[in-house]
Amino acid sequence: MKYLILLLLIPVATFGQQPDTARLYLTLNNQLTTHRNDLECNFNAKLSKSYVLTYDCYNTRHQLVKQLNRKPRLYDYTYSALTRPYFKMMPNSITDTYLIGDLKNGKPYNGFFIYPGTNIWLIFDFYQNGKRSFQVFNDLLPASRVKDTENSFTAISKKNTFVNGRLQSGIEVTPVTVKKGIVDIVRKVDKYQTVGYTLTMYSKNNPENLEIKLVKSGYQLACMGKNSIDITYSKIGKKIVFYDWKGRKVSKPKHPDNDIYSVALEKLAEVLKFKSVDADALKRFVREQW
């Protein structure tokens, strides 16, 4: 139920973003103010998501020179000497926290920039001298953070690390456009290896996560708070075992017609092939189902 509550809030936080009409300005040393100053910041509704308000900041020659993101809350490990100049805490009537990104020739150069390549997940790129150094993101999966909705969606507590541009640990998100809702495919990585996927899905007020964990002999699939499925492969073929929401082994369960995610999980179990799952295969599956 906690997972369900969390995901029910996602469309409100992500797609119900209200335009910000405040006239905001930045000084050249990144101080935010409502008084006319060096840089004028215009609200960017397309990039804003999950309670975070994103702005494009222009100089007097109308050149885009900075990105401003209001309200994200970074955890302590991101307050390094490297990131501190780009993370501001100013409890006042304007905002509590904000992130700054400096552009050079219209492209990210130093600091934090909101990552546009997701439907649901809130991710920030951190750049150093024009190159992405790492990402930080809001982890949607823990259920314990549903007590305070805005804090839940703006807490930036996880980090993606890259080595020579390759994801070493963290997540990689692939957005999917579907007719019946929104989907992000989340690839989980540890020590460069894919360890599983999550399909973060929302369709017609029925939000759900479908979990795919890679194990030595096959897959473990789970529909949050509902059923789960173990798939094992051997020389004699593929074996599928069903479990109910309490983890008890059952025969193939019957679902009401509106339980689209449990049905989808079973369809996924049928089409998965040993060691062949990847984001492209999951994208095709999602588009076929939705």
TrEMBL record:
<protein>
    <submittedName>
        <fullName>Uncharacterized protein</fullName>
    </submittedName>
</protein>
